[in-house]
Amino acid sequence: MRILSKYQKNVKNRNKDIYFFPQYVRIDLYTVLWILIDNKDVWIIDFDKCKKDYCAHDLAYFLRRLLKRSTTNWNPALTVDIINTYLKINNLTDSDLKYILAYLAFPQKFWKVSRDYYKNINKCNKNSFIALFTKGLNRSVDQLDYINTMIEIFQTYYNVKF
Prior knowledge:
Layout (H helix, E strand, L loop, with lengths): L1 H14 L7 E4 L8 E4 L2 E4 L5 E4 L1 H13 L8 H12 L6 H12 L2 H12 L6 H32 L5
Antiparallel strand pairs: 1-4, 2-3
Helix pairs in contact: 1-4, 2-4, 4-6, 5-6
């Protein structure tokens, strides 16, 4: 839980500096549903997923949604490109990078399937849940390899100490 306590400390520290935090982040990828462009002005029209949050959460959410796809399949080079592009605009601390990595390491698919199974244990098709677990297990090897590679990359290129 060391990362979580550092996360909370960063949020508290950043609250003092309005330039860095709080920032409004949008935690979904369906931008066509929430931006209206009129004469070069951009208008956000749907605020259901907007909130004040830790910027690293928004980046981590975006990366997970992108990297879990079969076409990107936990690609470390793509992650480095995205982080480097982000760093041209905004800073990321060691704690930010650790938070992103912890977020990406979390076994989201297993958690969701388990949660859904136990919520519907009396009326579910157990074979369907076994199939979902098996599919998730097959993809989790790639995710684990990715996390181990990213730890090395973060240590080597971003001087993050774990």
